[in-house]
Amino acid sequence: MNFLRFHPSYWIGTFLLLLLAISVHAEDHRTLNLEDSVEIAKQNNLGLQAAEQKLKAAKSQISFARASMLPRLDANGNYTYFRNIQKSVIQADGGFGFPMPDDEMDDMPTPSMDNEAELIELEFGAHHNVQGTVRLAQPIFAWGRYYYGYQAAKLQYEAAEKDLNASYNKLRLDVYEAFYRVLIAQEFVKVAEQSVELVKKQLKIAESSFKAGVSTNFDVLRAKVQLANAESQTIRAKNNFITAQNAYKTLLNIPLTEQISVKGTFATPQVDLKLDALIKLARENRPEITSSQLNEQAGQKRLKVAKTRSLPDLSFFSNYQISHNERLTEMNRIWSLGLQINIPIFDGFAARAGVQQSESVLKQLQLGREQTMTTVEFEVRTAYLVLLEATALLDVQKETVTQAEESVRIANLQFENGMITTVEFTDTQLALTQAKVNRLQAQHDYVVGVAKLEKAIGQKIE
Question: Model's pTM, two decimal places?
Answer without folding.
Answer: 0.75
